[in-house]
Amino acid sequence: MTKHSSPEHPQHQLSETRFWIQRLSKTSIRALHILGVAISSGGFIYHLDKALWLNWWLLAMFSGVLMMVQEIYRSKLWLIQLKGVLTFIKLGLLASIALLPQQQPNIYITVLLLSVFIAHGPAGLRHYSIWHRRVIDEPRKRRRNNLNG
Q: Which residue from 71, 105, 104, 99 is spatially nearest to 86, judged by alpha carbons?
């Protein structure tokens, strides 16, 4: 057994190599997402020519979807925890730009601020379940055997 596996939960065994591959892939996708968001931000906020930032925006959206898939695969609880719910609210706000184009910069800045709270807020906030009305998380043993982060 590696330090990331458990005899009680063999289906959740994670070898050292697999842990590093998963961890580095998650970090790489997050880095691409931040890069896409950062570069496309100027286009959104200052109404620049789409040709200058559209590919970066597509990178941000594609990498964001990949991060969501990773989170849902890792734990279905993500869908009812504030970190998941607020992610869907961010997507709704971004879609609302089509209906309120004059508010594009304000909506985009709001989405950026929500992103900070989702990524860096206290665990008690991010893991709060809107369904259970309390903080919930994976059982400790399962969480330890999954990809951390």
A: 71
What was the pLDDT predicted at 3?
46
Residue pair 12/146 in contact by the 8 Å Cβ criterion: yes
As a residue count, the chain comes to 149
Please give the Cα distance from 25 to 23 (Å, whole number).
6
Cα separation, 55 vs 124, whole angstroms: 36
The per-residue pLDDT for range 37-70, each reduced to its tens digit, is 999 999 989 989 999 999 999 999 999 999 999 9
Taking the C-alpha atoms of residue 34 and residue 40, their distance in angstroms, rounded to an integer, is 10
Can you tell me the distance from the alpha carbon of 83 to that of 92, in angstroms, rounded to the nearest whole number?
Answer: 14
Which residues have C-beta within 8 Å of that of residue 41, sequence separation ≥ 6?
A: 108, 112
Q: What are the tens digits of pLDDT across the range 3-23?
A: 444 444 445 567 888 889 989
Task: Report the C-alpha gap between 93 and 44 in whole angstroms.
Answer: 13
